[in-house]
Amino acid sequence: NVKMNSATPVYFLDEKEVKDLVKKENPTLKIGDLNIPVLEKKINALPAVDSANVYLNLNGNLNLDIRQRVPIFRIINGDQDFYVDQKGIKFPLSRNYSHPCMLVTGAVKESEYLKLGELISKINADDFTKKFFIGISKNKDNYSLLTSDGFYTVEIGSLENIDFKVKGFKAFVE
Question: How far apart are CA 131 and CA 28, in angstroms?
């Protein structure tokens, strides 16, 4: 029994891939031959997996509860192209699934992922800013928000005082 848990549905990993991994770990398909901690560790090691819990229920059926990573943004910088989740953890793109999220370009440092996630969460929480801003670019140490009309960008500089900057912009435009 495989359960994919997520408030936001993501499809980086499908049930067939998980079942194939179980079969690979346990070719005899006998529960007694399965090393549950090793299987759980292998599933948790998959890049798109946030957490996995593998256990036998009282009837002896194998259960796998898997929570997949939900990207909050995607970074493209030169030949690098990957997702970053809410926890600031980067993980590779999938050949099976592309998640709709904010696109960020430029040399973003790993230490900035959480602050950038915070900014994007604030943008996505408001209907107006969510429709208005379609991307973020970083040039040197300054960030700019890319607008849906494409006529201009909004320079926000550093990732400090995000609340103030987003509210200020919204008051200016509305």
Answer: 52
